[in-house]
Amino acid sequence: MDQEAPTNPDLVAPLLGVSEDDKSKIFDKGVSHLTVFQTPDRLFESLDYEIIENDLFKQDWRARKKEEVFLYIVTKWAFAFLTGFIIGAAALIINFSVENIAGAKWLVASSYMTSGRTMTAFAIFTALNTGLVFLGAAMTVYLAPSAAGSGVPESKAYLNGIDAPRILEPITMVIKLLGSICVVSAGLYLGKEGPLIHIGSCVAYFLGQGGSLRYHMNWRWLRVFKNDRDRRDLVTCGCAGGVAAAFRAPIGGVLFALEEVTSWWRSALLWRAFFTTAVVAVMLQLGKQFCAQGICGLFGEGGLIMFDISHAYGQFGLLDLFPVVILGVLGGILGSVFNKLNTRVTKCYIYWYLRKPPCVKVIHACLMAILTSACCFWLPFLVKCRPCPDLSDIPGYKCPTHGQTGNFKGFNCPAGQYNDLAGLFFATKDDAVRNLFSFKTYREYHYRSILVFFGVSFIFSLITYGIAVPSGLFIPLIINGASLGRLVGMIMTTTTGNKMDEGYFAVLGAAAFLGGTMRMTVSLCVILLELTNNMLMLPMIMLVLLIAKTVGDIFNSAIWEMYVKIKGYPILEAKPEPFMQQLTAKDAVTTSVVSLSPVEQVSTVLMVLRNTTHNAFPVIGESSTTGRKVFLGLVLRSHLLVLLKNKAFHYASSGSAENSKMLQFTDFAKPATGKSLKIEDIDLRPEEELEFINVRHITNGSPYTVLESASLAKAYTLFRDLGLRHLCVVPREPEEEPIIGVLTRHNFLHENLQNLFPYLMPKKQAAGKTILM
Amino acid sequence: MDQEAPTNPDLVAPLLGVSEDDKSKIFDKGVSHLTVFQTPDRLFESLDYEIIENDLFKQDWRARKKEEVFLYIVTKWAFAFLTGFIIGAAALIINFSVENIAGAKWLVASSYMTSGRTMTAFAIFTALNTGLVFLGAAMTVYLAPSAAGSGVPESKAYLNGIDAPRILEPITMVIKLLGSICVVSAGLYLGKEGPLIHIGSCVAYFLGQGGSLRYHMNWRWLRVFKNDRDRRDLVTCGCAGGVAAAFRAPIGGVLFALEEVTSWWRSALLWRAFFTTAVVAVMLQLGKQFCAQGICGLFGEGGLIMFDISHAYGQFGLLDLFPVVILGVLGGILGSVFNKLNTRVTKCYIYWYLRKPPCVKVIHACLMAILTSACCFWLPFLVKCRPCPDLSDIPGYKCPTHGQTGNFKGFNCPAGQYNDLAGLFFATKDDAVRNLFSFKTYREYHYRSILVFFGVSFIFSLITYGIAVPSGLFIPLIINGASLGRLVGMIMTTTTGNKMDEGYFAVLGAAAFLGGTMRMTVSLCVILLELTNNMLMLPMIMLVLLIAKTVGDIFNSAIWEMYVKIKGYPILEAKPEPFMQQLTAKDAVTTSVVSLSPVEQVSTVLMVLRNTTHNAFPVIGESSTTGRKVFLGLVLRSHLLVLLKNKAFHYASSGSAENSKMLQFTDFAKPATGKSLKIEDIDLRPEEELEFINVRHITNGSPYTVLESASLAKAYTLFRDLGLRHLCVVPREPEEEPIIGVLTRHNFLHENLQNLFPYLMPKKQAAGKTILM
């Protein structure tokens, strides 16, 4: 009944294009690097967001003192603060390390270049990159395979109510952090943004559980967050904090969490998430000011991703709308192409990795590093050197530059000339974006150079994301979009005499490409504004995002949604699908009810727990007046196990209330994932099994119910909007049994309903579903 | 059962402190200027947000063509565009008119001042102001009394599901617009922001209804928005657009609607609201660029509220946190004091107005105009002239200035000197804010001047809001906060040597005061950032808002919430109150069920409709197998009336399905408020009353239900989160009647539950409720 498990090989395998032979491999060996396949033995469970209103809860609530309420609130806020603090620190560590490692790498390579020893420079450059990637990939593959990828789908799944424990464990967080540093320093076409979001979720998850038993880091006194609701709220804050740290965009972070990641939201949570991101922002600001004194090595000013173009031109006329529309449409089309190809490449990788030992993943990553290094190093040699332009009105203008950063790189050129492609390829990804966004650098790049850069970046961002290292998609997408935008801008300004700056076009291009892939609007817009610190660009960015999303939605769905599907997370969408109107709640009930009486013999309870996988059991009593069966409520498997473990038994079947005195509400607090009791933990003597157990006081007397005749669409709305785990279906007419079944996440999933009612999947469903709604 | 009416005099009167004698007066005569008292005869109804899944709906859905779905979506977006366009135009009209009228007024007064004719200047100044206010107040009082006040509580109430038709009518919108122009030009301590939000809601409401029958402006073909859900969404967009127009803050607008005004929200709506605000932003930008050519009279650049301080210093250290905390605490305390006093003054006004003819309200407003003019004119004479400082590093610095705007007003001072108080009092409110926010103008104001200004502004903003004109609170609050902040800044920079600019303190002070009164966080923060166009101030503004809200929440609730209470709107809060856990759903059922059979004689239906005020009736049939009564679903009063009006009758009680052929789903579309059928509209011949009516096909077969034993808290969550109008309570044990009652908004209201269960209102409830949650 509660076997919320779409990780059924038959359901997931076709998505991956896996043959019958390999199917068992995936799920038996768990050899893929993608998270879901890590836990083939563990079926996904749902989280308990509903308040279990049983007698103990009510007693506890009535007995709660003012000080306890206050302490609870203080703890909530303290955790939000701590989450922000740790995320801020993690972001500083990543940025500090990346800037120093990558900076040192560029300096060494450049110095060899300048002294004419090109081959040595290349060898050192490639060796350093490959070494870093080897480190990152090996850590990921052997220590925490779930640290691979961006982690956004994982955070999304958790906040939709899916309990997939491994993905938010502390080891994942640590490897994600270290691995990110390695691969970003190595200059792969990856970002640190997605991983930072995952790190944020992990931090919050870790704190919300009061530490981790597995790694002997738990503090009992911290266990005030006794329920999944509070943990969910904290993880939401963590996500927002992660985005805020990634882009130094506190408002964008909150909006990202709201628009993309969470499934439930409250106004009160808005406030706490905002607090977390504020803490992150303050941390980053202080860190930056601290390092501005020059004591952080090569960290300096530029470390935190921020493409400040606040001084730039922000006026626009009606005529400027034309290129913006073109960019939006281009972004939408190329974005959906990217989604399609990127997910296909990742699927191929998964399929390929399945047949090989883990070391293949490491070798693959290293090969990717060598390939990337070769392209970045040799491609600039293909273009001609260009004479330095006179741009003395730009503050700090220097041409050519030799070293870590700079717009006009000397590279292999003589004095007074620069290599335009080197400024893009032979630089960190952040610097490349900064160069593309640069204003007033009219005609800095040749058409051919920017076209080559766009093509190579597009291909590399397609083939890099799926390898077994922590990888974010934001920066590659921004690079693709910015080069596309700059290209369009160059064409526009030449042919139509448009007066908008090329840098402005680059920003709009980045917005278009992001919008075309991620299909977000408000949060992307705010993130871009916060990144560029220029409010006046707002209307144009909004417009381009709206167009790109609309165009993209015609072809396929957002990239995170596609990855959620690939990973097999049974996410419930916000709205029921139209065909559900034609089904009733009763139609979706697939398993028969296993119910308990208010007082049962221990042996019966044990048998029920051993022979079912249900996580909740209806309690059915007898009416004192009519003697008919009456539905009293639901009792959770986890609560029954607590009773059994504590041996709260009675000698007689009358079941007096004495055991309610023995156990408190807090004894039933939900432990952290993986720490919950299992039926195997129960060890009873034979005579104890003959005793009786009274479940009345732990029965949730107010479970949500629907009538059997209610449409499934309505039941879905109820289930999804209230974040339920169990929804009881009750008969419309009095019947023998007062309950017909219990619906869970499993029963509402598209795949399962499709199996049950294949004729109901209508063709027109697609039209009304996502586009433009 | 559906009499959602807390406008019960007994409930509202104590809030107003009205005596028994006057109580009848309020509700009989409807003489107050506040909206609720305008409609004493009309009880508040709830809106129908639930999808009525009856047979006709399902048939219609199955028959719906792709083109129809597409048309529907296009219309939705077209309406969102149109809403934004009209709001943008309205904002431009207001700003254009205010700048021209107020500008001309200041120019005339200044020219008389300069020529030494002070008394003439004062007379003309006062006469103009009073004339404008007379116009505004007279329009409001005699044409559209519901245009008084800000309109935020009204929008909030509508979006919570309360149907209060008058408040969003076209006439209200027109008077709000014209009245706003008058009173803002007259220089009262009022803003145009709240009214713009109300105007936004009105525009959306008007469009969503397909025009207005009452004013002969309706287009039948526009009636595609046939349900309250779509109308609600559009009004949400309208609200967001209004805020965006008020502050030229598109993102802030969306967030304001999300955080403060709406009760339900979807990710899809976020997108559409964002589109609306983008349209508004583009409109304003284009309007501004058009007027920058100098063809809009005195409009020029400054018309749209925007206090650009983008060039200002944004760094901060740990030590700067100290004055920020002080400001936050001060803002919280003074904000809650303001809330308390402001609502009390408004209550006094209401009480006073009750006993007087309407012209008293106009006279009162005019007196307020004279008083304000006198203060603004004469107070600057009390201070000494100060020598012009040397601030040549500020671009466009000029001292002293004589005319419309300017930081350093000459006023009554000789050349080379300026009057610091004149720059604040003898200027439009927007200019005063701009002057307070100005950077690098170190020591521009004397302590005494800023203290006098703060005191006078505080008192005027307290006593002005309640008068019978369209009035917004934002600008007065910003003025109070900015002067407070500047004062604190002056003390800080002198005593502690703090290096933050006084203008920076003024911005933080404005944030603190707004946070302390309105208790919003994210949206206020974004609005302030968009107003000041300086992203680097973000962390500090966030911090000060959090502190101010937290401190304010200790003392009382947010100002809009207090006004919602005063106006008696039966708003359902997001969370159930804790005592509801101790009640069951059955406890809250107050009225007995009036049910119908699937086929009823017309006379019976008529009798039921005439003798009850219920808006929905359970349909109870007989089981074909057992012959027991079975609950089939709910039928709405409005749908029954449609059947009766169209005479869809049968001759026999067998009730064959023929009438379902006669009427289509669209015939049951919900008409705009005030246009719905009433029982008085039904005119039947006696022989028709003997015929039969079949309600089966219009019965919503999937109404939401709760078991009688479910806790009221759970029922509340279900009712509120899903936006229901009716919630059926079904028995747990089979009983004679298959339904126990129907819960509506009325049954969940605090006041009603308090009357029923006075002993249950716990004292500790306050602690856990709002503070810091």
TrEMBL record, chains A, B:
Sorted UniProt keywords: CBS domain, Chloride, Chloride channel, Ion channel, Ion transport, Membrane, Repeat, Transmembrane, Transmembrane helix, Transport, Voltage-gated channel
Membrane topology annotation: Multi-pass membrane protein
SMART domains xrefs: CBS
CC terms in the record's Gene Ontology section: chloride channel complex
Subcellular location: Membrane
Domain of life where this protein originates: Eukaryota
Residue intervals passing through the bilayer: 69-98, 118-145, 196-213, 234-258, 316-338, 362-383, 450-468, 504-529, 535-555
Primary subcellular site in the record, as a coarse category: membrane
Gene Ontology MF terms: transmembrane transporter activity; voltage-gated chloride channel activity
Residue stretches making up the CBS domain: 589-653, 698-759
PANTHER family, A to Z: CHLORIDE CHANNEL PROTEIN (PTHR11689:SF144), CHLORIDE CHANNEL PROTEIN CLC FAMILY MEMBER (PTHR11689)
Protein's name in the database: Chloride channel protein
Species annotation: Selaginella moellendorffii
